[in-house]
Protein 1
Amino acid sequence: MITKLFTNILFKSKSNQIYFSKRGTKLRVTPLNDAIQKAINLFESKSNYKIENQPDIFVQVPTDEPLLEVVDYMNWAVYRAFTSQEQGNDAYLNFMIDKIKLIADIYDFNKETWAQRYYNNKTNKFETKKISPVGLGAGISSVPHRSGGLSPLQD
């Protein structure tokens, strides 16, 4: 997911500082660095543009960086909307949906175009009835690949 998130964005700034929330007792810096490097490699191979400066990556305890708590909460609300189909579970997301610029449903292969998989507040408002639900534990291995296409992380 980190690779997908950063592939087309790291070139926009001359320097990038990326903060991740620490989970559990391990820092997991190596997998984070690897995912960011994969994003850089994918972007450079697609665009023929070289990203000169490597991003600075920081892993912090969310309580030490208050803005990470906000991002964690917002990500949790989006996650909950996709994974819990019980009525009312989208209330957390609906409370702050006007603060979210874009939600991409990257695993919905039933939509005809990518534009139908992107939700925003102007042209395609987010509603849980429009999304493809993702079950708990769903990952790349459980997502069907499109024939002849790239894997979801390379799209």
Note: Residues 136-155 have pLDDT under 50 and may be disordered.
Protein 2
Amino acid sequence: MPRSAGRSSRSAGSALFGYWLAGQMAMVREFAYFYAPYVNSYKRYQAGSFAPTRIVAGWDNRTCGFRLCGEGNGFRVENRIPGADANPYLAFAATIAAGLHGIGKKLKAPAIYEGNAYEDASLPQVPKTLREAIQELARSRVAREALGPEVVEHYLHTARLEQQAFDQVVTCWELTRNFERL
């Protein structure tokens, strides 16, 4: 890899912190609905937009889904996946559940990424659509264990209604596009 991209030798904190971070990264796709609950939520995940597109952690790196920053008692990780339209209680619940999953399973700490994550096609991606997030949550055993099956089914129902409502609408773009061609 070029010098500006790849893995860092810089430490990511304690073993416990490594498990927490690994859990966050492992569960992003399955918990994506709690971070981005609407059809429109997924349009913000665009390269170069300061919204994350890749599931990777980097030091003070805003191209990564997880940004490590601070030092000493101020050392922290920022989960940059949730958007402003996320319910903060659900986003925090998903974040905590993911971290606890990593700790409980003692997941291996991820390598710290250096470089522009937007440009690295080898990195895993944040779901690109609500439909993709619904599929990920529907198959999530961890979500059911952490939040309860009834809670997951409730939010799957809500998500499917959101997707169905969107699928039944003819948008202004579609109308304009079709008029251009007719």
Note: The mean pLDDT is 91.
Protein 3
Amino acid sequence: MSKPAYSRILLKLSGEVLSGDQEYGIDPIKASNLANEIKDVHQMGIGIALVIGAGNIFRGIKAASKGMDRVTGDYLGMLATIMNAISIQDGLEKLDVETRTLSAITVTQISEPYIRRRALRHLEKNRVVIVAGGTGNPYFTTDTAAALRATELKAEILLKATKVNGVFDKDPELNQDAKHYEQITYSDVISKNLRIMDMTAITLCKENDLPIRVFDVNQKGNLKDILLGKKLGTIIS
């Protein structure tokens, strides 16, 4: 087998990926399939930290637009990320992959509190580390949480797993003529207002020289192929 392109990654999964063909919620089959993909990468000796969104369960911004207090909505979204994290943890442990969930919001019955040194220690012991609860603060998305944790945990790349194959100049699901970028700079993402991630996350990655690869996680084997050096999706650097 070829040598992996990276020794430690942060994988950012959108919550919608976990819902599968359902409109919302967690599809156990989809969670199991994702766990298998992560196991394949883990067996390559790659350190894996994982951040999961909550769009399949709850969106704070959407709730705020309908009258809910924004801070309340964001905290509910953080709780939803913990539900998603536990579902992926369950899938991984069924495959005998040692996993730890650490949360920025204290829920001691089901997760450890997020402490950077503890997370690094788990990674050193070859455990998959799932970081839940966002940043622990309202007004920050899970994209920003992923960029922050990737920087803290010394990941070499942030892999943004979505339902589309990279970055486009407009929504490819609504526009057949959408232009695909194989490579783009952080500055161009910001200036063109390409909403693949929020601007705080992009800026944080830019300031810390952390590359981002956006790819389609629904295509089986894509994650492993990327880590073996295949240029799929879009690289932001």
Note: The chain is about 40% helix and 20% strand.
